[in-house]
From TrEMBL:
Name of the protein this chain belongs to: Ligand-gated channel protein
Organism whose genome encodes this protein: Limnohabitans planktonicus II-D5
Membrane topology: Multi-pass membrane protein
InterPro entries: Beta-barrel_TonB (IPR000531), Beta-barrel_TonB_sf (IPR036942), Plug_dom (IPR012910), Plug_dom_sf (IPR037066), TonB-dep_rcpt-like (IPR039426)
BP terms from Gene Ontology: siderophore transmembrane transport
Residues of the TonB-dependent receptor-like beta-barrel domain: 245-649
Length: 684
């Protein structure tokens, strides 16, 4: 009750500030242009010292997949969890789960995707304008859960700048590899004072084609076919948003829904029905009097639920409801320093009802203070930031399962994180960046209180209520060169964890009721290995390189894009490798442009991953070849963007080293085979 009151009070204070500033701004001079949103730079500049990748509309049109993880996989340092074609979360520099912060318009995306590999992220690229990916712990402005990086999915469901007249976009696409049929559209209308946004999408896919025949026991499906059994899916959603503007700010609101039904692929007859509804309120005022130039605030409420069905019968139901409030105030320069200070508060209530509820009901509350500062210099720029959090994680047990009774209680944590970075302009074409961070993360509810069968990991998981803060120290350094169309970026990184919280094998086994089973029962139906959440010492180190070289420039251009990355992760307490680490990857793409035409031909080689811990399966090397062509056509006030893409041109059989399915259900879900996709996007 106290926390709800605090959240409401902060929200009211935020809105009161915006209302007061609205009245004050009506008599002020004309406003300034809207800021560019850069996740790693809250000051709104188009540069940042931390490693960042951005995918705009054209990139998403070309490489967009049905999941966030697969859409981003292949970016420098980014792989995916790949629990089949319908559930995939980003992995950044070998870190996944709650070490990667997934945001929606810089606000928390409250769901259960980090809880389990088979839980999808309730976001679709069909309704997205841009995705920004920050690599490394310098993204601590967004919490200890951002130690690996941040993925910010940005849309315009709350218009942040005036819209003149009526604008729109529609997209149609179809694919052969999964029999995809997708449609999406949006309409925006407004004037200098008001703006309205409306969008919707519908994506339907069948079982995914692969280069090898697989068995299937799902009723209505072939017993043996070159498809991933139970991989069909449907996803649909939409949003309505509106904003009002004054000379120096705006205030807007939106409501959006997302629904998805998909197979879990690890089990032939288990499907998931997911639904989430999100309400958001956002505003900003600029050119304030006094110490602060501007104030920005975001408030959201999310209601998430998904049900696991065994055939047609509903099984375990997972739900998560929560609120997130974030307020940022940009201060005027102080001794040359420019920056923002802010507060953030989050509250979520999780529940799992059913036989496969491996975590109890829980409530998590957190409050945070943060600061981000920048000092422009003659030779570059210096940045510094800090974040203090107060986190309370409480187990509420489960009225249907008494095995959680012993874990009932609350744990309190006070993580504190600091980071600093700098960019040095060595010459007009060369620059060097460096970042250092000391980060702390509070354990999640399931890491503290889990006790049950988790079929996604094929284990009986036990939490550890004695866990302390996860602590890490990290460094990264980058060298960048740019001359005309040519560019190159090389980044090296290293992270040392004093208390890396991971799910570790114990060598023991449990049956379906949680009773101990001897080693002789390993492999029997219903017997699962016992795994315990523990804190260990760990280290991550790696290298990321990418660039572009102009090969030809006449009436047309020919460029070579190239990329490579590698990461090495070790459990320092045992000397064993950490599991699900992507191997070395090397790729190159030829890009030809001629007027409205563009064509690409590329290949990505993935090395064999033999450096795996006991209980994990190694993977062999493979190469994926891809090609695409696009054509931009202008018809009066409408622009048509036609595109065609051919993925896995050679129909290569491959298994993901970063997917848990490779170890727990090998052969059930290889990477997709050859697929041809054709589509068009119309903008007016």
């Amino acid at each position: 009750m106290t926390h709800s009151f605090q959240l409401s009070a902060l929200a009211c204070a935020c809105l009161a500030t915006l209302s007061f500033s609205n009245a004050w701004a009506q008599n002020a001079a004309p406003g300034v242009p809207s800021e560019i949103v850069i996740t790693g730079n809250p000051l709104g500049r188009d540069s940042t010292t931390v490693p960042v990748s951005t995918l705009g509309r054209a990139d998403l049109l070309e490489r967009g997949q049905s999941t966030l993880g697969e859409t981003l996989s292949g970016l420098p340092g980014v792989s995916s969890t790949y629990f089949g074609p319908s559930a995939s979360r980003p992995i950044i520099r070998g870190l996944d789960g709650d070490r990667i912060r997934v945001l929606n318009n810089s606000a928390s995306s409250l769901d259960a995707s980090a809880l389990s590999y088979d839980h999808a992220v309730p976001l679709d690229v069909l309704s997205t304008d841009r995705i920004e990916v920050l690599r490394g712990p310098a993204a601590l402005l967004y919490g200890g859960s951002a130690v690996g990086g941040v993925v910010n999915v940005i849309d315009n469901r709350i218009p942040r700048a005036p819209i003149s007249g009526v604008l729109g976009r529609a997209q149609l696409q179809a694919g052969t590899g999964n029999d995809e049929r997708s449609v999406a559209g949006l309409v925006e209308a407004g004037n200098e004072r008001f703006a309205l946004h409306l969008d919707g999408f519908d994506r339907r896919t069948g079982d995914v084609r692969v280069p090898v025949s697989l068995d299937c026991t799902k009723p209505g499906s072939p017993a043996n076919a070159r498809r991933i059994c139970n991989s069909a899916s449907t996803a649909r959603g939409g949003a309505l948003g509106a904003s009002t503007f004054w000379d120096h700010g705006f205030l807007g609101a939106s409501v959006n829904s997302y629904q998805s039904d998909y197979g879990t692929v690890a089990e032939d007859q288990v499907t998931i029905g997911m639904k989430t509804t999100r309400y958001a309120l956002e505003g900003q005022v600029r050119q304030l009097p006094g110490w602060f130039e501007s104030v920005k605030a975001r408030l959201s409420h999310t209601d998430y639920q998904h049900t696991e069905f065994e055939g047609t019968q509903a099984g375990t139901v997972f739900a998560n409801k929560g609120q997130d409030l974030r307020i940022e105030a940009r201060h005027r320069p102080l001794a040359g320093w420019q920056g923002v200070v802010g507060v953030q508060t989050e509250s979520s209530r999780f529940s799992a009802v059913g036989d496969e509820a491996f975590a109890p009901f829980s409530r998590t509350r957190s409050q945070a203070l943060f600061v981000h500062e920048e000092l422009p210099t003659a030779w570059g720029q210096v940045t510094a930031g800090a974040r203090w959090e107060s986190v309370r994680v409480e187990s509420l047990g489960n009225p249907e399962l008494d095995r959680f009774d012993e874990g009932i209680g609350a744990k309190k944590f006070t993580p504190f994180s600091v980071a600093a970075g700098a960019v040095f302009k060595l010459s007009p074409t060369w620059s060097f960046t460096g970042n250092a961070a000391v980060t702390q993360r509070a354990p999640k509810d399931y890491e503290l209180f889990a006790n049950g069968p988790h079929l996604a990991t094929h284990a009986w998981e036990i939490g550890n209520k004695d866990l302390g803060l996860e602590k890490s120290k990290s460094l990264d350094g980058g060298l960048a060169w740019k001359s005309g169309p040519n560019r190159m970026v090389v980044t090296a990184f290293a992270s040392q964890f004093a208390n890396y919280i991971g799910l570790m094998n114990t060598g023991d086994y449990r049956d379906e009721e949680g009773k101990p089973v001897g080693p002789e029962g390993a492999g029997d139906e219903g017997v699962l290995p016992l795994q315990l959440y523990q804190g260990v010492r760990a280290k991550f180190q790696g290298l990321e390189v990418n660039g572009r070289q102009r090969l030809w420039q006449k009436a047309s251009t020919l460029d070579l894009d190239w990329r490579a990355d590698t990461v090495r992760a070790t459990n320092s307490s045992t000397g064993e490798p950490l599991p699900r680490i992507s191997p070395m990857r090397v790729g190159a793409t030829l890009v030809h442009s001629h007027g409205p035409w563009s064509a690409k031909l590329g290949a990505d080689w993935h090395a064999a991953q033999k450096r795996v811990p006991d209980g994990s399966r190694s993977t062999v090397a493979y190469t994926l070849v891809n090609a695409s062509v696009s054509y931009r056509q202008k018809l009066d006030t409408t622009v048509l963007q036609w595109f065609a893409r051919l993925d896995n041109l050679t129909d290569q059989l491959a298994y993901s080293a970063s997917s848990i399915l490779t170890s727990t259900a090998f052969g059930k879900s290889p990477l997709p085979g050859r697929s041809f996709k054709l589509g068009v996007q119309a903008s007016f």
